[in-house]
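Input record (one chain):
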Amino acid sequence: MKKVLFTATVDSHIKNFHLPYLKYFKDNGYEVHVATNGKAKIEHCDIKHTVPFERSPFRFNNIKAINKLKTIIDKESFKIIHTHTPMGSVVTRLAALKTRKQHKTRVIYTAHGFHFYKGAPLQNWLIFYPVERILARYTDTLITINHEDYHRAKKQFKTSVEYVPGVGIDENKFKFKMTQKEKSELRKSLGLKDTDFVLIYAAELSKRKRQQWLIDLLKSLIEQNSKIHLLLPGSDSLGGTLQKYIVKLGLSKNIHYLGFRKDIHQLLKVSDLAVSTSAQEGLPVNILEAMYAGLPVVATDCRGNRDLLMDNLNGFLLMLNDDIVFEERITELINDKGLYRKFARNNKNEAKKYLLVNTLEQLSDIYKQAKP
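The corresponding structure, as predicted from the sequence alone:
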C-alpha cells in the first residue's frame, strides 16, 4: 500500500488546517501517517507518531527528533512526505535525506509564511534565510501561500516552487443559519446588545498579532462611543498580561477576551467588522473567513494581509503604526453604510477564489506530479 506522511511541530496545526488533505489521501488508497510533538487523535490518520519537535531552533530535542523521525521514515518507505511549520520542516527534510534517494520519496514543504520577510528583524534573516535556502535543495516541491514568499523563493531557491493561496476556506463550516433571536442570544451571552457595533480579531494573543496596540487605539474610540466592542477569541501565549491590561485601562466592559473558541463562524455572524493589526502573516485564515462571512476588514498593510485586501475596495489596508488613521477608518465604516455594504459585497465575491475545493484541486495536481 502507498503511504504518505504529514509532519508539523504540533497536533493543532494538522487538526486546524490539514484534515481535508489527510482525507484526500485516505480516499485515494494511501495509508496516512502523521508525526507531531503531541498525542492527540487525528481524524483520517491511520498511524500517529510522536516526535519531539521543538519550535525553537536552539533546542537539543530537535536533534533527537531528527534521529527518531529518520528511523520512522527509513522503515516506512513513504511515497510522499508533506511537511509543515518551520522547525517541523527542517527536522523532516534532514531526516528524509536518505529516503529521497533510496526510496524516491517525494518531499513537499508548505511554507506558511517564512520568518524572513520585508521588515523582519535582522536575526530572522541571519538564522532562517540560510537554513531555508540550503534545505530547498533537499525539497522536491516548495509551496508558498503568499506572493512575497513565492517571488523570493522562485528567484533565490533551487527547487520547484508553487503558489497555493492558503489551506482553503471550508464552506461547509458556514452552512448554517442563525435566526435574529439566536444572534441576539449569542450576543447577550457575550455581554453585547443588538445595537452594539462589534469588531472581531480572531487570533492567538501574541506580540506578532499586536492586540495591545489595537487595544490602545480603541480606548479613545470607546470613550467617544460606548457601543463599540471588540471580541478577542484565541489562545493566549502572553500569560494573561493582556487581560490585566484591559482591566487596567477600564475597558473590560467593551473588550472581551474569549479564549480558545470552536464557534468562530458563529462569532463572525454576530460581528460587524473584522480587524487585524498583525506585523506579518502567511495568508491569514481569520481574514479569509471574515471575508467569506461578508464582513468588511480593516487591517495592517503587511505580508499576507495585502494578498487578500485591496485598499478601499474590500477593506482598508493601513500602515503598521498609523493608529490615528486606523481609528478614522473604523469610524468611517460605522457611519458610512454605503461603503460598508460595498466592502461586504466585494469580500463575499473575492473569498470564493479561496474555497477549499479550489485549493484541494491545486494540491491534488501537485501531489500527482512525478518526482524530479
